[in-house]
Amino acid sequence: MKKNTYYITTPIYYPSANFHIGHCYTTIIADSIARYKRMQGYDVCFQTGTDEHGQKIATRAKEAGLDPKSYVDNIVENAKDLWKSLNISYDKFIRTTDKFHELAVQKIFTKLYEQGDIYKGEYKGLYCTPCESFWTSTQLIDGKCPDCGREVHEVKEEAYFLKLSNYADQLVKYIEMHPDFIQPESRKNEMINNFIKPGLEDLCVSRTSFSWGIQVPFDPKHVVYVWLDALTNYITSLGYMSDDDTEFKKYWPADLHLVGKEITRFHTIVWPILLMALDLPIPKQVFGHGWLVINGGKISKSLGNYKDPREYIKEYGVDAVRYFVLREVPFGNDGTFSEEALIHRTNADLANNLGNLVNRTISMANKYFDGQIANKHEKESIDKELFDAVNKVNQIVKEKMELLHVSEALESIFDVLRRSNKYIDETTPWILAKDESNRNRLETVLYNLLESIRVCATLLAPYLPDTSKKIKEQLNNFESSDNYLENNHYQVNIPTPLFQRIDKKVE
Ligand code: MSP
């Protein structure tokens, strides 16, 4: 049987410096969604990559005394190592310097030129180099770049333009007919009211003032302006405009482009228009998420206000970092990253709630039954609440994930863990253990707890893959049903703590 496909992408990141926890944020969320969809049986293509051309990278490389390609090669290697240490399960990693991408971009540019969607003109405008963005004077805030607040400068040069205005009506119609296309809702209104309604200016899609880019094939003093180069990654990686477009046919249109709020504009205006001009289907959804901020401000390569994320992984464990990022910020809003908050979350949820539950339960199974537990079916009314919680949670997770409410999906699993800890307090196994006549009831109670833990571990796999695996190893049970089973059987291992409580004080 043919499986349903699911194509999910992160933005392709600028390799202008090594990545920080903000880049990890998008990537970890995308990874959890990809893993969740795989668990649901989808044929998933999860793509990330790097956006390597443009003046900013060229300048950085020069400062470092390297040619641009060697400069980005180092950063890409570092990024791949970071993704590995975060257990990011991407299927594809595209670099805009990949030959197949460069060739496809040239073909796309030529096609759009030949059909009249791209034309030659003169560019006079305000440019923010760090953001690689052009602005009109009305878009500036206090005369500065509205995205990063830095200085913009005037540039004037011969350039090619993409006729965005030709497609504005078609775009508005598309957005209106497809209410899920731009999410969350607030961003959709922002796009329509702040950008489309005031009128779309044609977009400059080539530059002559720098050379680190893809050459316009029929006019080699021009290089393709980075956003056309960058956005098309989502289709060139699948073989669009190449000899083998099997994957393109299979996965396009994308199901979800996850992007930060500041680049939602490019993904919901420029990108669909490019696709309309190419006569290709529009992605099903673009989700513009908020930022992780530090001390109220953006985490910034140029401010250098962050540590390498691997330091946190080394100190607290990969799943502590994944959990924090997934749990702390309601998706769509901004959230604050701090080491203190990371420690707090790890202690409260991972060490106390999850870790203690697993440790207590497995220890008791060993202590009272040599680790061998079967269901003795000696139920009591007090069990009902736990059963209900365990049997409902997969449905709740499903509903939350469909809305991309990842934080709430995780929260619902932790509610069941909390409920299970409460069940231990209610059933007091250590008291049951004192009386031989309670033996079957005691075994039933431990069975119920093991089932709850197993179901939670199964559901946690997309978010905390290592921890999920460790729990299943300790349970010595890899059954992946996400419901309470009546006749499972356990021969548990000796428990080892999943998370250590962290007592460190952060300055
Ligand atoms: N290269 C472009 C994207 C092209 S996609 C066709 C770009 N790169 S970026 O490296 O500047 O940013 C990539 C993504 O990382 C953006 O979605 C951005 O929002 C995200 N983040 C960068 N810093 C972030 C935080 N502090 N918090 C959350 N996400 C952040 O833009």
Features:
alpha/beta; 17 strands; single chain; Isoleucyl-tRNA Synthetase, Domain 1; four-stranded antiparallel sheet; six-stranded parallel sheet
CATH domain fold name of one domain: Isoleucyl-tRNA Synthetase, Domain 1
Named CATH architecture of one domain: Orthogonal Bundle
For the record, the CATH class of one domain is: Mainly Alpha
Helix fraction by DSSP (H/I, runs of at least 4): 40-55%
Radius of gyration: 26 Å
> What is the β-strand count?
17
* Helix/strand/pairing category: alpha/beta
Give the strand order of the largest sheet, numbering strands 1, 2, ... along the chain.
3-2-1-11-12-7
Overall form: elongated
Biggest sheet features: 6 strands, parallel
How much beta, percentage-wise? 5-15%
Distance between the termini: 57 Å
Bound small molecules, by name, code or SMILES, are: 5'-O-[(L-methionyl)-sulphamoyl]adenosine
Low-pLDDT regions: none
Task: Please give a structural write-up.
The chain is an alpha/beta fold. The protein has a domain at 339-491: Isoleucyl-tRNA Synthetase, Domain 1. The protein contains 18 helices and 17 strands. The chain has a six-stranded parallel β-sheet, with helices on both faces. Helix 13 (339-369) packs antiparallel against helix 17 and helix 14 (384-402) runs parallel beside helix 17 (439-460). The longest helix has 31 residues, at 339-369. The radius of gyration is 26 Å and the shape is elongated. The relative contact order is 0.11. The model has no long low-confidence stretch (mean pLDDT 94). The protein binds 5'-O-[(L-methionyl)-sulphamoyl]adenosine. Residues 11-14, 22-23, 25-26, 51, 230-231, 233, 259-260, 262-263, 291-292, 298-299 line the site of 5'-O-[(L-methionyl)-sulphamoyl]adenosine.
